[in-house]
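User: Teach me something about this protein's shape.
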Amino acid sequence: MKIAVATENDQVATHFGRCPGYTLATVHDGDITSEATLRNPGHEPGVLPGYLAEHGVDVIMSGGMGVRAQKHFAEAGIQCIVGVTGPVKEALRAYLAGTLRPGNDRCLH
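Assistant: First, the predicted structure itself:
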């Protein structure tokens, strides 16, 4: 499984499409086996779901995401988790432990 976390300064970014990049965690048997950084190719409607799907992403976490973007990700087979805050590493650990408690979607448009 691969998880992409919208990242800004080691924190979960407020908006998935406007973040500088994504922390890409590869998970095997519940453990992170590798991490990489993917640069955000730009905020254009419909681009990011395909871009992240090409990298094998199964789940994306962010502070916020518009409804239309969530639909595009669902069509690409990628689960969206919004309302996530705090350090990226803590969010990944909580997700893998089953204790992640997303809040309200932080996307304001």
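Now, about its shape. The chain has one domain: 2-97. The helical segments are 47-54, 67-75, 88-97. If you'd like, I can walk through any region in more detail.
User: That's plenty for now, thanks!
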